[in-house]
Automatic annotation (TrEMBL), chain A:
Lineage of origin: Bacteria, Bacillati, Actinomycetota, Actinomycetes, Kitasatosporales
PANTHER family, per database record: INTEGRAL MEMBRANE PROTEIN-RELATED, MEMBRANE PROTEIN
Taxonomic superkingdom: Bacteria
Transmembrane segments: 20-41, 53-74, 95-122, 128-151, 158-180, 206-226
Swiss-Prot/TrEMBL keywords: Membrane, Transmembrane, Transmembrane helix
Protein name as it appears in the record: ABC-2 type transport system permease protein
Keyword Endoplasmic reticulum part of the UniProt annotation: no
From TrEMBL, chain B:
Keywords: ATP-binding, Nucleotide-binding, Transport
Residue ranges of every copy of the ABC transporter domain listed in the record: 4-228
Annotated Pfam families: ABC_tran (PF00005)
GO molecular function annotation: ATP binding
Stated family: Belongs to the ABC transporter superfamily.
Protein name: ABC transporter ATP-binding protein
Species in which this protein is naturally found: Streptomyces erythrogriseus
Length: 239, 303
């Protein structure tokens, strides 16, 4: 199911270009902001939870997910180089599965690790806030990577759609329309974080069972569908 | 023996018919797929390579379906027209990756790089390659698993004459070895120099098929049209129409010229200057008025 050559090509494409700069810039920004907040406001559990929840989990994780998930396949389909993968005796779902693993790993490294570092800077992991949000970032990384990999497979405007989903749906609609929150990767991952933190600092609108099922279903369905779409991907000529 | 069969294949995109009921069989040796730009060559090659589903009809390789059949790529090598090819890798890394995807190793990759004579630049990034070098590395990636069918979409586009010759030699060798090699081109001379057999596609339809000499003859024997200006158009017209090589002449008063239709190309081109000299007429303009490839092809469709 996992092809090391496909993985190597995907890693190098993801981390080799300008993409790597954006991937690195956001975590850096989070850490700088955390340092500033800690210096100005001192260690405070509520502040730490606000920064990690509002900035790390609500903004940074989905954006990194969009870049890694769509970037794992979108550019190859756009410029046609995916033909070198498709013209091989490799099952299409294997290509998707491998790219998913890479996208998840990249999203985790560039979102969960900085979240943990930021959490320790903010309040030294008081009340398990840093660990809870890191777990949320890890869980969200899986679902985002799968969703945005599918988006990258089916749409040429994957980055735009991905950002619209991440920023407008998750952030804006989530705060305006209560129902939208139950259909949000962010809330699902928060449900897991809530369980880890155990206190009142980290809360989710969704129950843990619902969240776990939703995360699993979204990840599996998105991956399966992306594999199916790749099987019938049409490489139109330039005529 | 590898035979690619295209059986009553059509492909449309919305209301546009790109390929219209094409049936052809491509056997061992070098076959040229000839047609003007936009004739449907790339669409056809994409269907032959399994990257596009025919709307109707079937494409099979030795009886096996090509569409949605990954296993078929053990036998097919593809050289796409598009340039993009993991520019951040070196030539060697790229060919090696292609070998690995076939379950092969460094030895196969090195052999393919040697075949296309790209060892000298194999450790440079593909981004730094010229068009011809890219083409050769693409070729190496297609040859790495020793395929019996090779599909090349406009392989000579943008190559300089020397690179073109090298690639032609290589393809000829592949054909001589008994592989089935199919390449597309919109340039008659390329096809003529290389292909044993040609298939002509015009406006999505299969216009002609067979030995290139026969098709070449069809092309040169077609009625040619010329625009001629001279010091005495009417006297020239009278002298030309007396010869059987000319089938019609119109005096175009507004243009101040003759429109001549010649049926025997060779004889007419020899006759025109001779007749002019004999009658003391000066020729001011002689220009073919329908030499575009499209008009040549559309004549073929009608033939």
């Amino acid at each position: 199911m996992y092809d090391p050559t496909v993985a190597r090509l995907t890693y190098r494409a993801l981390l080799g270009r300008r993409r790597a700069l954006i991937l690195g810039a956001l975590p850096l920004l989070l850490i700088v902001i955390s340092l500033a907040v800690r210096a100005l406001a001192g260690a405070d559990d509520q502040t730490a939870a606000d920064v990690l929840g509002g900035l790390a989990l609500a903004t940074m994780v989905p954006i990194i997910g969009v870049i890694a998930g769509t970037g794992a396949i979108g550019p190859e389909i756009d410029d046609g180089s995916v033909v070198y993968l498709l013209s091989k005796p490799i099952k299409r779902p294997t290509i998707i599965y491998t790219k998913l693993i890479v996208a998840i790993a990249v999203t985790m490294v560039f979102s969960a690790v900085p979240t943990l570092i930021a959490g320790f800077i903010l309040n030294g992991n008081g009340q398990q806030v840093a660990v809870a949000y890191t777990v949320a970032a890890l869980v969200a990384s899986i679902a985002y990577a799968a969703l945005f990999l599918l988006l990258g497979t089916v749409s040429r405007h994957a980055v735009v759609f991905g950002l619209v989903y991440a920023l407008i749906w998750e952030a804006l609609f989530g705060s305006l329309v209560p129902g939208a929150r139950t259909l949000s990767v962010q809330q699902w991952s928060l449900a897991v974080a809530e369980k880890v933190a155990g206190g009142e600092l980290v809360t989710s609108d969704v129950g843990l069972t619902t969240a776990t099922v939703a995360l699993a279903v979204v990840t599996v369905l998105a991956t399966w569908y992306a594999g199916q779409k790749l099987r019938t991907l049409t490489l139109a000529g330039e005529e | 023996m590898t035979t690619l069969s295209i059986d009553h294949v059509s492909r449309w995109f919305g209301n546009v018919v790109a390929v219209n009921d094409v049936t052809m069989t491509i056997g061992p040796g070098v076959t040229g797929l000839l047609g003007p730009n936009g004739a449907g060559k790339s669409t056809l090659i994409n269907m032959m390579g399994g990257f596009l589903a025919p709307s109707t009809g079937t494409v099979t390789l030795d009886g096996e379906q090509v569409w949605r059949n990954e296993k078929i790529y053990r036998h097919i090598g593809i050289v796409p027209e598009r340039e993009a090819m993991y520019d951040f890798l070196t030539g060697r890394e790229f060919v090696l990756a292609n070998a690995e995807l076939h379950g092969l190793g460094a030895k196969a990759a090195q052999k393919a790089l040697a075949t296309v004579e790209m060892e000298y630049a194999q450790d440079r990034k593909i981004a730094t390659y010229s068009k011809g070098m890219r083409q050769r590395v693409k070729m190496a990636s297609a040859l790495v698993h020793d395929p019996s069918l090779l599909l090349l979409d406009e392989p000579f586009n943008g190559m300089d004459p020397r690179q073109r010759m090298q690639l032609m030699d290589l393809l000829r060798r592949m054909g001589d070895e008994g592989r089935t090699v199919l390449f597309s081109s919109h340039i008659l001379e390329e096809v003529e120099q290389l292909a044993w057999h040609i298939e002509v596609v015009v406006a999505g339809r299969h216009a002609a098929s067979g030995d290139f000499r026969r098709i070449r003859r069809l092309m040169t024997d077609r009625p040619h049209r010329y625009l001629v200006r001279s010091s005495d158009d009417r006297a020239l017209a009278a002298a030309l129409i007396a010869d059987p090589s000319t089938s019609g002449i119109e005096v175009d008063v507004t243009e101040g010229a003759l429109r001549v239709q010649a049926v025997d190309f060779g004889r007419f081109t020899a006759l025109l200057p001779k007749v002019a000299r004999e009658h003391g007429i000066r020729l001011l303009t002689v220009s073919p008025s329908d030499e575009s490839l499209e008009s040549v092809f559309s004549y073929l469709v009608a033939a």
